[in-house]
């Protein structure tokens, strides 16, 4: 449609000033648009049904990708307004202001992430005081000496009070997740990993998510669950990074009017990366490990400037939490505090060359146990997803886990008599000595593991003398904590797996060290603490399959590089062994959530999968100049977030879908909303209004709360014309029909694309097919999205690589 309309007409009537042929095409296009939309939906349903039938024959029935996840838009829309902005005299000053604001925002991210971390730690500290001083020690002191260690009613009162307090805190955490912010459940690392990969996870970095996460994880840890607060700190830091950088809050409906230049997916991604690094730094006192974590686990884009800003945020976060916690603990200004997880400093740093094979063996054990943990947790999550889906059922499960965790702790103390003289462990502090049922002058070694914060239990296993814990104590505690962590990770509370995995690994690692000492009694210098450290690294590495960043985190958390080589070897072997069986825990949960994430490398054996098989043909395109009525109808009848712009649209005599001409650009759905909202319509050859200067940066979030009815378009408005050309992105990425899947994959992964258009050799948005009986080439439309690429997954069966094609689930 290239005619110019000067007289107001209906979208379904002819304009006397336009060409009759073009007018008839336009009228037919408008009147048949709804019918075409129904045909497209019917075609998609038939295709979906056929794919579901194919998938039902596969062994992994859960393999699908959800259609509800959309891609983030990292590409700059270099339209005419974007180019004109560079010509303004103030552009040089604008560049300097943006650069300055980036560093200022990174500083604020570090400060606020440190404040959140300190808030969580202080809440857990007060909860510990209530549990251990007001409930446990006070009630036990009321029991007579002859009643301790028995099943007398007094001891049952202690246990019921303990479990009741835990259930109250866990109820608060569960309510926040189930009823306020469901995305706040778990550690949040899989969601942040998906976000940095380029996937828009709904509400993942909202303020209400941050509040629910911070309060919920404090209640989860304080409620005695096998959960850590360090993993959720990464999610909290990412939410801080997204919130601070936007200068507004969707949850509160407040816009501070600052940092408008950062209100796009591209800039927000960088600040979320900085927030994730700051979260790791606050949790472990490991700024370098935080930067490496964002690189290894999340970021799909990297440059030197971003690295410096991330390290700056991580360092500010680490020092902020150190200063606050040093002040809170009566040592104001002591900046060498170690974040939320203080693992202590190893006194004995010696190890010999003959111990390297033992460390490698620990890596093998960690890989096997990590693979077993991931397999069982994945099966449990599938069961939970299918049978525990109601809100009441999820809340009841949380309370059941809290009650069972408390009951097993008391049961273990009754079952194991591991009382030690108070002077047997000179490294134990007053908070780590708990008499429980032991006689006067003794303390319970079991209680020093169960009845204190997990970080303190890890510290005890790392630094206590060799005879501080009995063999049976370590065996039973390791098995119980492994199973409780397995059950806890995935329930509807904020909870991390870092510290529980470290604590489990430290238990069996220390047991391994004790066995080595008994096998080689004549060898001096065998310290079970360093084997506990290796076991902790192996267990955590076997679960999450991290290598570089985890090595740096452990070295920074222990303030020692001496064990860098053993830890690195342990984590490498652990990953190799674990990968032989299954994926890491976070990747498994991402697959269960049906998120179309793109890995680091394309699937093997996929070179012969070409663009004409990958692409979708149900494209809805626009011409460079369109009736407002047609744009409104397209926005009503489709859910597409972007539309290619072509030079012509013709009816195909052989296909139900139109035949499109040359690709000229594309425009986002949010940009069309902005044009309609500002009435950028043409009447008598002029524009009625001007757009804001930041139009080229508008994103989907800008219009997520709006609908077409909110725009208040009149019949007069819909009769006008809209010139799209000045506002579209004029040179979108495109590939020919014979492009291979690995090449397409690298384009999406490296450039963070949202759309990739498929054109034939003449640069038409179409595919060429040979029509039977007439042997004539016809043109069809094609576009590739993230889901189209992600549905091809690499699988290994019978020692051979295969490529499975998943179906797109609409549910």
Automatic annotation (TrEMBL):
Entry protein name: Chloride channel protein
PANTHER family, sorted: CHLORIDE CHANNEL PROTEIN CLC FAMILY MEMBER, H(+)_CL(-) EXCHANGE TRANSPORTER 7
Cellular component, GO, one term: chloride channel complex
Cited PROSITE patterns: CBS
InterPro entries membership: CBS_dom, CBS_dom_sf, Cl-channel/antiporter, Cl-channel_core, ClC
Source organism of the structure: Caenorhabditis briggsae
Subcellular localization(s) per the UniProt record: Membrane
Family per similarity comment: Belongs to the chloride channel (TC 2.A.49) family.
